[in-house]
């Protein structure tokens, strides 16, 4: 009998406006899956990539040196000096370059699937560092704000203590917090969305943004919705990036009229997210997203779900060789 490990990892919303490259949360209902089995050769082979979702995914590299899932597993083989390699199949539920953490989710699902086949299981902190190496090939920089919530679930802060030394801190999530997503049907590469950012900011902006990050973190941990609404804001990155998604300025005034706690760009975009205190409000916002998409001719999909409720899953299947 051959053992096949099947793992899933959720989509994620990185930054949450105030915490660029630091904060993120997992999204229930959209995920990538990776199937893995052990092979004698100390390498990773990608057998196939299929899609279970909608949106762009055909351009995901099947070259094992460029795919986030295989690069993450290769890092694990080398880092742990494993005596074997893996053959993997990837099922993309998260569209490519959507701002929903698809490259991180594939890397996380790969290391979770690979780990499940090991006799001695690795701690999450090690899986995190290998998944991060995988994510880096797609995003053009090492930042763990998608990998952390995809692997740990919930709302996370990814803190960097040294060049390759990261610490993931789980942040308390208010009991009632929902997310609405608008995913426009065009890709935006993270590398491009990072490449346009200025290297320097003013002291005044630094102070204001520090207040927003502190206010959002306090709001989340205290369950204080006013603090969340006042501080889930970004005055540094969003003003620079919104030109890459021209619909942002058309949607924003309408979103300000409804009672969302916050809205903004999900990760590097082009998806938008909004936070609500109730599921009912989150559904109203997703209907608004659909209406605005029709009005401004931006075709796309909407999702609604609880913030931070998703985490990776894994199971072993035994099949005849
Ligand atoms: N923090 C990253 C960015 C997330 O906004 O560029 C990318 O997925």
How many domain regions? 2
**Terminal Cα span:** 6 Å
Per CATH, which architecture of the largest domain?
2-Layer Sandwich
Whole-number radius of gyration? 19 Å
> What's the CATH topology label of the largest domain?
Ribosomal Protein S5, domain 2
Residue-averaged pLDDT = 93
Indicate the CATH class of the largest domain: Alpha Beta
Approximate strand percentage = 25-35%
- What pattern of helices and strands is seen along the backbone? EEEHEHHHEEEHHHHHEEHEE
Shape: globular
For the largest beta-sheet, the strand count, sense and barrel status come to: 7 strands, mixed
Helix count, DSSP H or I runs of 4 or more residues:
10
pLDDT < 50 runs, ≥5 residues: none
Category from helices, strands and their pairing? alpha+beta
Give the beta-strand count: 11
Fraction of residues in H or I helices: 25-40%
Ligands in the model, by name, code or SMILES, are:
L-homoserine
Question: How would you sum up this structure, described in words?
Answer:
The chain contains 10 helices and 11 strands. Helix 1 (68-79) packs across helix 2 and helix 9 (248-257) runs antiparallel to helix 10 (279-295). It folds into 2 domains: 2-172 and 308-319, Ribosomal Protein S5, domain 2 (2-Layer Sandwich), CATH 3.30.230.10; 178-306, Alpha-Beta Plaits. The chain has 321 residues and is α+β, with helices and mostly antiparallel strands. The protein has helices at 68-79, 102-116, 124-139, 147-152, 190-195, 203-222, 225-231, 238-241, 248-257, 279-295, and strands at 2-14, 23-39, 44-51, 85-92, 155-162, 165-171, 178-184, 262-265, 272-276, 300-306, 313-319. The strands form 2 sheets. Strands 1, 2, 3, 4, 5, 6 and 11 form a 7-stranded mixed sheet that branches. L-homoserine is lined by residues 14-15, 20-21, 139, 143, 145-146, 190, 193-194, 267-268.
């Amino acid at each position: 009998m051959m053992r096949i490990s099947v793992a899933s990892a959720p989509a994620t919303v990185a930054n949450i406006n105030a915490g660029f490259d630091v904060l993120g949360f997992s999204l229930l209902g959209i995920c990538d899956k990776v199937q893995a089995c052990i092979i004698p050769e100390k390498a990773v082979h990608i057998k196939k990539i299929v899609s279970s979702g909608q949106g762009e995914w055909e351009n995901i590299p099947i070259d094992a040196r460029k795919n986030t899932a295989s690069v993450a597993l290769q890092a694990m083989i080398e880092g742990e000096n494993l005596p074997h390699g893996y053959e993997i199949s990837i099922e993309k539920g998260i569209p490519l370059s959507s701002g929903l953490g698809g490259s991180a989710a594939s890397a996380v699902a790969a290391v979770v699937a690979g780990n499940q086949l090991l006799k001695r299981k690795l701690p999450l902190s090690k899986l995190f560092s290998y998944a991060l190496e995988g994510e880096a090939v797609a995003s053009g920089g090492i930042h763990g704000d998608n990998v952390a919530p995809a692997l740990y679930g919930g709302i996370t802060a990814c803190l960097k203590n040294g060049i390759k030394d990261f610490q993931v801190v789980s942040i308390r999530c208010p009991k009632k917090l929902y997310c609405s997503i608008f995913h426009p049907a065009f890709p935006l590469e993270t590398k491009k969305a990072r490449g346009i950012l200025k290297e320097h900011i003013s002291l005044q902006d630094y102070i204001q943004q520090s207040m927003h990050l502190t206010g959002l973190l306090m709001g989340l941990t205290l369950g204080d919705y006013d603090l969340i609404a006042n501080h889930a804001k970004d005055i540094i990155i969003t003003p620079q990036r919104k030109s890459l998604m021209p619909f942002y300025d058309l949607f924003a005034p309408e979103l300000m009229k409804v009672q969302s706690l916050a809205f903004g760009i999900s990760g590097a975009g082009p998806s938008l997210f909004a936070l609500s205190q109730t599921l009912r409000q989150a559904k109203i916002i997703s209907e608004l997203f659909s209406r605005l998409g029709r009005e401004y001719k931006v075709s796309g999909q909407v999702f609604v779900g609880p913030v931070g409720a998703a985490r990776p899953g894994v199971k072993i299947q035994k099949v005849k060789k």
